[in-house]
Structure formats: structure tokens, C-alpha cells
Fold:
Amino acid sequence: MKLTFLGTGTSMGVPVAGGFGPRFSGRDPRNQRYRCSAWIQSADRSLVIDAGPEFRLQTLRAGIRRIDALMITHEHTDHIAGLDDLRAYNYAQKKPIPVYTTQRTEEAIRHRFSYMFSPDKTPGSVDLDFRPFNEPVHEGDCTIVPLPVKHGGMEVMGFRVNDISYITDVNHIPDETAEKIRGSEILVMSGLRWSPPHPTHYTIPQAMEVSEKLDVGQTYLIHMSPFVDHEEVSKRLPSRVKLAFDQLEVSV
Ligand SMILES: [Zn+2]
Ligand SMILES: [Zn+2]
Structure:
């Protein structure tokens, strides 16, 4: 199994539009972060998590030639704005793309992108096959386990794919979900910034504390703000926790 980080930035991307804010980004490419997305490849499946505003650029940069299924964590714009560009895969693969997500996220997407789903939908618009799920499903040699977590008042779906667990936009992990994550070789989890605390996201120190309790191999942090300088913050982390960066590839 191979995990590729397609994007590791918080909702506005890093740096933000207009280039405002801290300017760590100049020298270190690890401080330039597209919106969060990941690509998981097994022997017979190519799975993508989330399709944000840079989805097209991410597929080109990583060389994604096939998508067997998409998993969507939640309907915030930074995780779904690129859905329209899945058309290219519909044309190439000549069939709808299975989408694993929650019932609520499916409804929100149908509302936001109504032109894709109306009875008189524009010919050639994207063709998605929603599969809301609460129980593990099998996709070829992958078992996908839903990992519901809290993002403030909103429930966000994380996913465990074999030994890789991926949760983003989280500030609370219920005990039942923690049990499902336990024993993963890799945990991907969001850590917005070092401080101050945020109402809907773990800070990096909070994410470190949570990962320690989960008994996982290596933890990679994502969804980082412009105030996280890769090199400087990495020095403060224990070896079992690393900051991910765009285009990082990890094999399991
Ligand atoms: Zn987000
Ligand atoms: Zn969010």
C-alpha cells in the first residue's frame, strides 16, 4: 500500500490567496500546502480522499490516472470544491465513480452542485455513485472502515483503509472510533497550528497527545495553517509524530 499526500494545508491553503500572512513559504517548499487530500494505492485499487479546490492540479502533480473510488470526509468547500473535475475520470473510465461518504454530506453535495444531479442535468457533467455507509465496506483488496469524529458541532467521516487511518478536521474522537483506529500502522490526523486552541480543530500539541493514546505506528499531521513553519515545528515533535507535506509518499 502506498499513501501519497496530495495536499496538507488548512481551508484557505498555504500561502493564502493574495500572499498575505507569514512568509515562511519562500525557501521551503514544504510550507506550500494545497488543500487536504490523499491518494491510497493498493495492489488493485486507486482510492482518493476528498477533492478540494486544487484537485485537478493535484492529480496532474501526482500522476493519478485512475480513481476506483472517492471518499469524502465532509462538505466544507476545502474538501469538495474540485468535484467537477472528476468528469475527466468519468470520460476515461466510462462509468460513474463510487463515492463513500455520509448521508448528510451526500445531500449537501446534491444541493451545492444541483446542476450535476437534476433530471435535466447538463450532458457530460460529473457522474457520481454515492454510497453512504456506516459499516465497513470492501473495495477490492481494501477494507474501508468509517471513522466518525467531531469537527465542532459537525460530524466528519474519517476512513481506515487496511492499516492506514485518515481523519481530518477533528477536535474530538469518540471512544468507539478510537477503538477502530487502534493498531493502525499509519494515522493521518489534522493539527491546525501550535496555538492558540481552535473551536473545531485540534492544535498540534492536542493531536500529539491524542495520537499517543491511540497506539498507532507513525502519525502524520495535516490541515496546517500558514503559521506552521515545517522545519521549526518539526523540531518540537517526538519521532512518532511528523508533519506531512505535499507530495510526501509513505509505503505500508
Ligand atoms: Zn478542512
Ligand atoms: Zn471542515
Notes: Residues 11, 36, 76, 78-79, 169, 223 surround zinc ion (ligand 1) (CB under 6 Å). The domain at 2-18+25-251 is CATH 3.60.15.10 (Metallo-beta-lactamase; Chain A).
